[in-house]
Amino acid sequence: MDLLVVVPHPDDESLGAGGALLLAKAAGLRTGILTLTRGEAGRTLGLCPSERLGEVREGELRRAAEILGVDFLEVLSFPNALPQEAEEGPRGPTTGRGLPDHPEAERAIRKRLLTLRPRFLLTFPPDGINGHPDHVAASRYAARAAEGLAQVVYFVQPEGPWPVTHRLRLPEWALAQKLKALAQHRTQALSVLAFMERHPERLWTETFHLPGSRGLEEGPWW
Questions:
Q1: Where is the region Disordered (predicted)?
Q2: Are strands 72-75 and 31-35 parallel, antiparallel or unpaired?
Q3: Does domain 3-218 have CATH number 3.40.50.10320?
């Protein structure tokens, strides 16, 4: 395994690193996705009963992963926390607890790393980009789990606290596939549209922080 994306929810993989996964695969690398929850606390948009949202979102992820061409996909079932400011609308069931309440997720990640032996682990930066408690916890668990096993890389915002060290500008074919992967996450369409409204440029330009790198490089880190 060359590149493993570790994220808390289905759709994080396509929004944050869909282009990176596509370009790495096109370069002959072996890629994978590890999702820590099934995203069962997201919005349903009336597309499924609330109690089935986790199952439906897992199916959406599997279709997106097929489009992204990954060699490995695993969906764990740690609980999904609500964001700090949860949007209105029908949601799936939530216990009020999430990844921050389950530090054993770190051991689960490390177990997969010991098996897969990826060279790079790609995840959220320590602030989770938007402060979502699951994003922050996933970043912390993944970085700790990767110690001595894989090089951690963060997907970051261009103007965020972690400086961009690598920028990927997607060719037309990769952008088309990334958009197709995003379209599989139908239950989270409002979240995807909000991302497009706030950060349209991040659809065709993905930005990353590789700790220890100096300056800005146009292109991949692998």
A1: 83-104
A2: parallel
A3: yes
d(CA 11, CA 38): 10
Size (the chain), residues? 222
Give the gyration radius of the chain's Cα atoms.
16
Q: What is the pLDDT of residues 36-78, one digit of tens each?
A: 999 999 999 999 999 999 999 999 999 999 999 999 999 999 9
Contact present, 121 and 146 (Cβ < 8 Å): yes
> The tokens of 198 are what?
């706030």
Cα gap 121→102, rounded to integer Å:
20
Rounded Cα–Cα distance for residues 127 and 137 (Å): 9
- Contact call for residues 16 and 185 (beta carbons, < 8 A): no
Evaluate whether 174 touches 68 at the Cβ level (below 8 Å).
no
pTM, full prediction:
0.94
**CB count in 10 Å sphere of residue 136:** 21
| Per-residue pLDDT tens digits for 109-152 | 999 999 999 999 999 999 999 999 999 999 999 999 999 999 99
Answer whether 217's CB lies under 8 Å from 167's CB.
Answer: yes
Give domain limits for the chain.
3-218
Could you identify the residue written with the tokens 């590890």?
A: 34
How far is residue 181's CA from residue 93's CA, in Å, rounded to a whole number? 25
Quick: pLDDT tens for 20-32. 999 999 999 999 9
